[in-house]
Design brief:
- It contains 22 helices and 15 strands.
- With 511 residues, the protein is of the alpha/beta class.
- α2 packs across α3, α16 packs across α17 and α18 crosses α19.
- The chain binds pyridoxal-5'-phosphate.
- The site of pyridoxal-5'-phosphate (PLP) has 17 residues, from α11.
């Protein structure tokens, strides 16, 4: 497979280069030159590894810098096993009484769906560097408002040839999320709290990425900066797999035949997860429509209705913080696909977005989009009401992100009577978001200490919390550094460029 730039501004590259580069150096995102087809009928007995292998092989095992079939299989075994996930199904489907299938994507080590990709991406990065003969140490910089940080730490922990630095805003993340990050083990992990809010923190990291002088000095010491966010094709591809898997599981548990159409609902932020569903559909999976669910930051809902993407609007902090996003990076890949790689259009829209914070697509493009996707959004009160309703009816606890999706489904059904079975992507364990769950179940202010809220929720529901949060309270805090947003560069210089550091033993690249 060859990968092209969504803006047509870069030579085609092989899979290893696409993974190591992350994004197109001149702006734009890598996408596969063509979309391979899968035979869904062949999956009825396959386990998760086999589905993953067959879905991913055409993307990874052909062309320049490709992996061997054995390398791909080994990486799948390293990422998805019973040490990393708590069920051999990896992503089980839970059927509700109304026939809706909840695709649980949070059985990995950190209780959020980002594990599905971040458990495997580090292995691919290592492999790709080896294929390209790169001897550098990759320095992963992550600014996080919660979920991505811990998932990236767990994925990159002790991976040879990498150092990971996670920066989180000291006024931005929940106690559970903070404890998850600060207790991470591993010889190459670094977690730093940054004074201020998420924007300050993200601004600091973006400044580091664009500092060419700093990067040159790092490069002299064989360091290369990289990010772990969903603009990397290596984060997107593993997500295609679970739609194929979830589709087969849903169809089988409903006693229907493979080939039957299904609608998919995805709680959306950066547009990565729903884009993976789109690729699954284009690969031949019988998905009828994709429902894009947003919270109060409803820029995508408006876009899907009007064709106008307008990021210039107020930003709301919501109960579903991982969807609090106004510029959804992966939308660019979707637009490149629906316009059949019309690079000129993409370039114009993204120049508009950069200069004016908005752009409008033409009527033809909007029609193409509408053929596959609908958008709905869910407010804060409705999010809590949905959690409570589903809990009371089913004894099943949705996390706030999944509740946004579930409520979008209700709205979608009101507007569309031609129902088919539905798969709702469930993106996090409810026990990561105890404040919102507490409000939903008890209808009162949660206790100040989030672990108290967690205890009360477990007592009331008799549910066992996810293992990722269960033993957190007693674990030692291993990371204690705190900096201001202005200190980012000097902090990393101290860590990576000072003489003292040179004497420290680095993790040798794997042979
Ligand atoms: C990241 C995240 C999302 C949004 O996914 P995108 O791929 O960015 O659209 C939704 N829910 C949770 C819990 C997340 O962590």
């Amino acid at each position: 497979m060859r990968y092209i730039s969504s803006r047509g501004n870069y030579p085609e590259v092989g899979i290893s280069e696409a993974i190591v580069e992350g994004m197109v150096p001149k702006g734009g995102l890598f996408l596969p030159e063509k979309i391979p087809q899968v035979d869904v009928f062949s999956f009825s007995r396959a386990d998760y590894h086999e589905v993953a292998y067959r879905v991913l092989a055409p993307y990874f095992c052909e062309g320049e810098g490709a992996y061997t079939e054995e390398e791909l299989r080994v990486s799948l075994r390293q990422a998805y096993n019973l040490q990393t996930f708590d069920t051999p199904e990896i992503a089980p489907v839970r059927l509700l009484s109304n026939g809706v299938g909840i695709l649980e994507l949070w059985h990995g080590p950190t209780a959020a769906f980002k594990d599905m990709a971040l458990q495997i991406l580090p292995h691919w990065l290592l492999l790709s560097k080896k294929k390209l003969g790169k001897q550098t140490t990759t320095v992963i910089l992550v600014a996080t408002s919660g979920d991505t940080g811990k998932a990236a730490l767990e994925g990159f922990k002790n991976i040879a040839g990498t150092e990971i630095y996670v920066f989180f805003p000291d006024e931005g993340v929940s106690l559970v999320q903070k404890m998850q990050m600060l207790t991470t083990e591993g010889i190459n992990t670094h977690v730093v709290s940054v004074e201020g809010n998420f924007d300050d923190c993200q601004g600091m990291v973006k400044t580091l990425f664009s500092d060419t002088d700093f990067k040159a000095r790092l490069s002299n010491r064989r360091y290369e900066l990289s990010s772990a966010n969903s603009i990397n094709w290596g984060r997107l591809a593993p997500q295609i797999v679970y739609y194929v898997w979830g589709y087969v599981k849903l169809i089988q548990s409903l006693g229907l035949g493979i080939g039957h159409e299904v609608d998919v609902v995805v709680p959306t932020g950066n547009f990565g997860n729903i884009l993976a569903a789109y690729y699954a559909k284009e690969m031949g999976l019988p998905l009828r429509r994709l429902v894009c669910a947003s919270n109060q930051n409803n820029v995508l809902t408006d876009f899907l209705r009007t064709g106008m993407y307008d990021s210039k609007r107020p930003f709301y902090k919501t109960y579903s913080p991982s969807m609090d996003i106004l510029v959804s990076s992966n939308l660019e890949r979707f637009l490149a696909e629906v316009t059949k790689h019309n690079f000129l259009k993409i370039q114009n829209w993204y120049i508009e977005l950069q200069q004016r914070g908005k752009f409008k697509v033409d009527a033809t493009t909007l029609r193409e989009i509408h053929a596959v996707m609908r958008g709905y959004w869910t407010g804060e009160t409705q999010t809590l009401t949905t959690i409570r309703e589903v809990y009371e009816r089913e004894g099943y606890l949705l996390d706030p992100h999944t509740a946004v999706g579930y409520h979008a489904l209700k709205q979608y059904w009101e507007e569309h009577e031609d129902r088919v079975p539905v798969l709702v992507a469930s993106t996090a364990s409810p026990f990561k978001f105890n404040e919102a769950i507490y409000r939903a179940l008890f209808d009162e202010e949660p206790p100040h200490n989030e672990f108290e809220a967690l205890k009360e929720i477990c007592e009331k529901t008799k549910l066992l919390p996810h293992r990722a949060v269960m033993s957190l309270e007693g674990l030692p805090v291993l990371h204690k550094e705190h900096i201001s947003p202005q200190e980012g560069k000097s902090y990393l210089e101290r860590k990576l460029l000072s003489k003292k550091h040179l004497k420290l033993k680095k993790i040798p690249p794997q042979s």
